C-alpha cells in the first residue's frame, strides 16, 4: 500500500533524488519548494519552511491529495558561508531558521497525523559538517548539528507511538551546492575522503529508502554517515 510521503526541498539535488527513489519504491510522494515550480513526475507544493503558515498550508494540500503524511524527509537547507568575524547576524539567523527551525516546523506539523495513526517515519538530512566542523560554516554546522539533538529528542518522545526519528549525515555530494567549489577545493576535499570521490545523490537516497522501510522499524535516534569515511570518529 502506497504511503503518503513529503520531502522538503525536494525539487533538486539530494531531495529530488530521495523523492524519486521513494516514488520508485511505490510511495505517493510530494515535494516542497519555495517557488512551487513543477518537477517532472512528482507532485509539488509551494512551501517556505521559515513560515509556519506556509508549512501548514503545504501539509493541508498533501493531506487532501494523498492522506496524512506517514514519512517526512526534512531536507530543505541553505548555506551562507563566511568567517565568523565577518558573518552578519542576518546570515547566521537565516541559516538556522531554514535548516533547524524549518525542521522543527515541518516535524511539528507532521507528527499530528502520525500520532493519530500511531506510526510514522521522521528522517532528517544533516551533514558531515555538523559533526566534523568546517571553517567558514559555523552557521551551517550549528544548524546541522542541532538536528541530531532535535531528532534524538523526538525519538524519545515519540517512540511509544511507533514513530521513528533518524538522521542521515551526508558528506560531499555532487549537487548545485558543491558545483560552486573551485577545482582546488574539490581536490583538497577528495584528498581527505577515504573513498576518494564525492557521493552521488542517489547514494543518499538509498539510505533514506532503507530508513523509511520496514527493515528499519527498530532503528530510532540513529545518525547514519554517508560520507565516504570523511567523518570517521565524529
- The topology string of helices and strands comes to EHEEHEHHEHHEHHHE
Shape: globular
Residue windows where pLDDT falls under 50 for at least 5 positions: none
Structural class: alpha/beta
Q: Number of helical runs?
A: 9
Strand order, main sheet: write it out: 3-2-1-4-5-6-7
Query: Could you give a short account of the major beta sheet?
Result: 7 strands, parallel
Strand content: 15-25%
Level-1 CATH class name: Alpha Beta
CATH topology: Rossmann fold
**Helix percentage range:** 40-55%
Q: In total, how many domains does the architecture comprise?
A: 1
Number of strands: 7
Radius of gyration: 17 Å
- The end-to-end span amounts to 38 Å
Q: Quick summary of this structure?
A:
By secondary structure, the protein is α/β, with parallel strands linked by helices.
Your description of this structure?
The chain is of the alpha/beta class and 234 residues long. The chain has a single domain, classed as NAD(P)-binding Rossmann-like Domain (Rossmann fold, 3-Layer(aba) Sandwich), CATH 3.40.50.720. 46% of the residues lie in helices and 15% in strands. The chain has helices at 13-24, 52-66, 89-99, 101-117, 128-132, 138-158, 176-179, 183-192, 201-212, and strands at residues 4-7, 28-33, 43-46, 71-74, 120-125, 163-170, 223-226. The protein has a seven-stranded parallel sheet with strand order 3-2-1-4-5-6-7, with helices on both faces. It is globular and about 50 Å long. The mean pLDDT is 96.
Amino acid at each position: 500500500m502506497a504511503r503518503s510521503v513529503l520531502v522538503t526541498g525536494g525539487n533538486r539535488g539530494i531531495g529530488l533524488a530521495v523523492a524519486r527513489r521513494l516514488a520508485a519504491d511505490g510511495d505517493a510522494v510530494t515535494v516542497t519548494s519555495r517557488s512551487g515550480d513543477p518537477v517532472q513526475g512528482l507532485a509539488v507544493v509551494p512551501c517556505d519552511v521559515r513560515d509556519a503558515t506556509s508549512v501548514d498550508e503545504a501539509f493541508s494540500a498533501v493531506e487532501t491529495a494523498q492522506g496524512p503524511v506517514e514519512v517526512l524527509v526534512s531536507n530543505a537547507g541553505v548555506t551562507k558561508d563566511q568567517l565568523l568575524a565577518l558573518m552578519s547576524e542576518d546570515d547566521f539567523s537565516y541559516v538556522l531558521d531554514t535548516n533547524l527551525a524549518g525542521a522543527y516546523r515541518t516535524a511539528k506539523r507532521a507528527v499530528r497525523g502520525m500520532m493519530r495513526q500511531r506510526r510514522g517515519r521522521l528522517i532528517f538530512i544533516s551533514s558531515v559538517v555538523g559533526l566534523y566542523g568546517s571553517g567558514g560554516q559555523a552557521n551551517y554546522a550549528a544548524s546541522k548539528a542541532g538536528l541530531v539533538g532535535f531528532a534524538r529528542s523526538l525519538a524519545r518522545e515519540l517512540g511509544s507511538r511507533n514513530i521513528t526519528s533518524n538522521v542521515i549525515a551526508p558528506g560531499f555530494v555532487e549537487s548545485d551546492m558543491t558545483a560552486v567549489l573551485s577545482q582546488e577545493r574539490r581536490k583538497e576535499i577528495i584528498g581527505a575522503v577515504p573513498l576518494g570521490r564525492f557521493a552521488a545523490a542517489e547514494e543518499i537516497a538509498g539510505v533514506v529508502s532503507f530508513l523509511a522501510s520496514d527493515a528499519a522499524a527498530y532503528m530510532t535516534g540513529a545518525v547514519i554517515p554517508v560520507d565516504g569515511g570523511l567523518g570517521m570518529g565524529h
